[in-house]
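Appendix B, record 7
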Amino acid sequence: MEFNDFIFPERLKEQLEFILDNTSKIPRSLCFYGLPAKGKTSFAKFLGGKLANEVSYHDCTNYKKDEKFHKSIDMESYTFFRSGANESEDGLFTKCIILDEWQVLPPKIQDSFKTVFEDGNKKCIFIICCNTSIKKPLYNVLSPSIQSRCHKVRFDLFARDLDEVIEKTKDKFPMLDDTFIRNNILDYRAITREVNMKAVPEEIIL
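Structure tokens (predicted):
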């Protein structure tokens, strides 16, 4: 997957391109937030593959299974599963750790990551993926101490973005019906599923 495979409005694309092109200027912790199905996790995995030698993914809904969740993540930032991954190249981090569904963590657990983000492996970058909504905005689901330590990028589409993103989607996926695109433009997963289904020959679709 390449950067242009993602369909984002230009204002968001510019923010993400800056991160890709300026690794020395960005903090070691990023927060991608917005409504579900906006491409946060998919882009986090793509970005991690571009910025780091090794990428690790964690679903934070599993935090109750590990009483020392933050310590396990901190320890993992120094652990490598591929030979030579701990050898940093120019402009690259040794490791990227993606923490998905961050919003499920209680404030106390979130705050335990303060030292991990600040004092942990300096060659490890952390990407938090956090679902938010009108009823649960970022300041309600991300603790203040973590907010102050992250570079935040909002993935939501605004009304002014819709026409632009609809046209981009039509150009990239001409096999999709215009009505389907308009009805599902706010759901990145639905569009991806439909594109994948269009690639399957009809005779083998059960």
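Remarks on this record: The chain has a mean pLDDT of 89. Residues 135 and 141 are 10 Å apart (CA to CA).
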